[in-house]
Structure formats: C-alpha cells, structure tokens
C-alpha cells in the first residue's frame, strides 16, 4: 500500500526530459518485468503476499471486479505495531509540530526520489508537506516515522491520507499512500515492507480496506501506466543543468524563442480562484470527473483544501464569464521543486505539475496556455503534466516533450477487470 516501495532500490517518479514515447500495453510491461526477474526478486515476493492484482491474473476476465479480500472484524485487526529491528522504534509524526515537520522535510530532502542519473531529487517544501498530509479528516496516526532508539534521529517515513475515490459507479473510502522514504544508509535493512504493513494496519484500524498509490517501477499490478511530459519555461537553465538538451540543429537563442510565451494571459475573465469560488469549482469539477473510470469524489471541503491557492504550494485559476459571472473553466498546478545535485550555478529546479483542469467554454488549449503563462510569470522553470484525463489534447500543441519515465498507478485490495487507459483516469496523486 505504498508509494514507491522501490524507493529502496532507487527509481524516479519524475524523469528527465528525454524524448522517448512508449505505446506499451499493460500485458507487454508485465511480460518484460517477468522476463527480467529471476525468481529472487524480493519486492515481487512481498507484493505476492498482498491483496493486489497479480501478474498471473492479467487478462483473466473470470475474476470479479471490486474488493479482493473482505474486511476483517475490527477486533481481529492486529492491535500492536509490527516489530522493527531492535535498534529502531516507531514514532507518529505530528505534522502540526514545526520541529517534526522539519525532521520529515530534512529526511525527504536528502533521501527521497532521484532521477536515474542522480542529478535531481524531489524537494517538497514544509508548506507542501503540511498541505499534502493534512486534508479534511486526516489521521495523525497515519504519519509514521522510524527513529534510531539511541539518537532519536528520524531515518524512515511513510504516510497515508484518507480519500473517497470513485471506481466506475462505486465510491470507495481509501487511503492514499505516499512519501515512503528510507535513509540511504539503511536501504539494506528491508524496512520498507514492514513500514507498508504498519501503515496498512493503521489504515485497517480506521475501518478502511482499500488504497491508491503510485510508483515509478512496475509492481503487481498497475491499473494504468502514464507518461510524464515536460514544457520548458526557462529553456536555458534546463539545458544548463542537464534536465533537457539542445535539439539537433538548434541554437540556444532559437530554443529560447521557440518556448517564449506571451507576457499576459489572453482569456477574458481569467483570474485566480478565491474562497467564494469553492461551490462553483466543486460543481464544475464533479461534473467533469464523472466521465472517468477512476476519479476522486470531491466535496466542497476537499476542493477548499486541495485547490484553494496557497503560496508556493498550489495555484488555481478560473474563467468567470464577464457577462453572466458564471464560472465556466478551471485550471490548477502544484509546486514541486527538485534539488539540483552537484551543479555549481543552480541548486533548485522550480517545477509546476498540472493538477485538475476543466474546460467547458474556453478551449482547453487556450486555458492551458494561460496556465503556462502564469507559471512562467511565477518563475517556474518547467511545467510537467501526465497524459491523464484530456491532457493529451494539448501536450504536443503546447510544445511539451515526452520524458523518459513512466508513472504506474495502483489500487490496493481492489481489482479492476481491465486496465484503464491514462485518458480514463481522473486522479492525480501528489
């Protein structure tokens, strides 16, 4: 039930910009994975014991859709935490506490996901972590740390937050699991599986039996596989730090000209979202997300938390008709910088990630071009998007290039008979 179980083995959720496009089906990804594994793959062994779609069942239409295992009576859920090696102890990380938040931030900043060439590492801000881990109805007990008993140093972390996710016509209470991180020096200790089991136990104690998570590696068994796309906003810096490369027969000045954006947005009535817009945005979003196979079931509290703008965390803009004052369109992105490793001139890559976008009156292309313009004005270096929802409609047109990595989406203890296409997925996990 974890984001990035293979963070121990090092992988990337957000790849470098290198043009590789893949049309692989789930079956071919699975086949490639099975061909490459030689019986001793420990992560595969762990996931084979979990109630998740198994590789051997791919294509078996006889299995029912829905929960894989029935809930256990709460009285039978293990009441005590799982055992850790004797030098370590469990702690619950209170993200309201400034000191604890700083400890989690420091662990992630120094040890979380890097790209394959070890050039970039996610650098979630403290404000971002506070936002990501404290949505309406969150459980403090799901923010789980591992400390060294003697020094009280935080060396591992995993977190869950509650969510309502609709799968076809069923709205299911789930945990979204994220931020699984083990200190680099402890990656041989096999802490990740026990952390996954522990967060699962704590989720079960709240009578929740399903979860959603993502990873940059293939585990049993993705419900879909998405591609990252990148749009250069500051091409010179991106090339200087090795994030992207100068194209064939391209000079730096031609590249800068290619990616240049207008100074101001073009859509009439385009403005920043405000608190008073929450009901209208909720209606817009609920209507839009209803078309996807898997999507969050947002209410007004969720929209206020996840989409109301927060400085350097999440930005949301909408189009309000100048005549009727009706809110007709909406776009949003969140801020997830990366540390630039080993570069003398730059330490941070400022990246915006496309979040939820709804176009009803304004063409999606124009709406997203306005989003790029405001991101550029806010000094973002790159704008990233997955090919989920209707994003494919604007990616090439707006000069996004495909990255070299994929993001796999998973459901825990919930089987979908068939994998969904990225365009049938209405869910963005941080």
UniProtKB/TrEMBL annotation:
The keyword Manganese does not apply. GO terms for cellular component: cytoplasm. Residues 7-21 have a biased composition (Basic and acidic residues). InterPro entries: Acyl_CoA_acyltransferase (IPR016181), NMT (IPR000903), NMT_C (IPR022677), NMT_CS (IPR022678), NMT_N (IPR022676). Keywords: Acyltransferase, Transferase. Residues 1-25 are annotated as: Disordered. SUPFAM superfamilies: Acyl-CoA N-acyltransferases (Nat). It catalyses: N-terminal glycyl-[protein] + tetradecanoyl-CoA = N-tetradecanoylglycyl-[protein] + CoA + H(+). Its EC number is 2.3.1.97. Residues 67-226 form the Glycylpeptide N-tetradecanoyltransferase N-terminal domain. It comes from the Eukaryota. Adds a myristoyl group to the N-terminal glycine residue of certain cellular proteins. Belongs to the NMT family. This is Glycylpeptide N-tetradecanoyltransferase. It comes from Dillenia turbinata. The lineage of its organism: Eukaryota, Viridiplantae, Streptophyta, Embryophyta, Tracheophyta.
